[in-house]
Specification:
homodimer, alpha+beta, 6-stranded antiparallel β-sheet, elongated
Amino acid sequence: MRLDEHFPFYRALTPAQQALLCDRLIEQTIPKGALMRSTDTDSAGLVLIDRGQLRALLYSAEGRETTLYRLFGGDLCLFCAPCLIDTIAFDVTLQAEKDTVCRRIPAAVCRTLMAQSAAVASQINALLGSRLTTVVQQIEQVMWRGMDARVAALLLQEAQIEGTRSLPITHEIIAHHLGSHREVVTRTLRALQADGLVELSRGRVTLRDVARLRELTQ
Amino acid sequence: MRLDEHFPFYRALTPAQQALLCDRLIEQTIPKGALMRSTDTDSAGLVLIDRGQLRALLYSAEGRETTLYRLFGGDLCLFCAPCLIDTIAFDVTLQAEKDTVCRRIPAAVCRTLMAQSAAVASQINALLGSRLTTVVQQIEQVMWRGMDARVAALLLQEAQIEGTRSLPITHEIIAHHLGSHREVVTRTLRALQADGLVELSRGRVTLRDVARLRELTQ
């Protein structure tokens, strides 16, 4: 792996900083289904996803969950952000949706580089800006959009990720992504099926009219 | 005003950077009620609120609004963040809730300092981390909490800001903060009044039982 291609700040580092990064870089594999909490300090750092897929989720006090954002190969992510940026004070859980391989700059190294290098700190600004944008868009979705629009948006995203319109996804998993109840999702999907937008079968949702699903999300 | 007290990175700047900051610092007054959109590039930069109060709000396509976060004297804020951090791509509006005085480091100067100084870039990391935390907490509120808990939290916040339990606030303004409808807020407030938690009169909400309002928010 070419570090300068994947960590955009790499070329701006001094030789000593580059050596520190290379020496301390950790390769990690995260099996599908594994959970990491942002309070687990031993998995903390700036993480480059080589390949795989993760979702960041919030849990409610009652155990409901909702997906905040997703990460794919090539993405950078601050794991355990609270121990890297003092002002970050929410507790997020990461779940591997597929077997994932990543390289991690441990938190202590990351802190050193952030303090020394404007390029590293600026890269992290870009990262935080991108997360902030995603999370604000989530608020807009939750506040202003109906459940039909949110289910349609999720199905279109899944179809894009998986490269197929026939999605092996349960109503419960959709509810977990959207922070909703399974019954609400089932009712919404049945209405979409009655309108000819999707077709439902056991453990599977097939997109029948992508154009109208897109319209719904706009 | 002592710049080193209010811009925590000031001491870490070189004399040339300090001179640039001082030369280009702009004092601005924003009258109560004034609106600034994050697309107005001529008010862009890193802004220190000297005194006053602003709220950052999102509008829906249908003209509904919701408060994302609030800013007070001493707070730092990235105005027009998209032109400072490329990855920020949401459109937020700032509204002065009180007459506000602030000092602004214009966007171009801010970009220069961010690129040169790890201290400035790290300060902006802290700022973005803090906003990200607030916005994630907002999602948790909207997704998991009932309207009674959200109204109670807003009333307690207002009482703290204003230093009084007798709040000159309309149901419509509460609805604007919470991204809800006035009718929903009125229904919620009447239920809180029936339970002895608040007292309603024309254009005013008085907090009668702060302890139980706090319980509601927990």
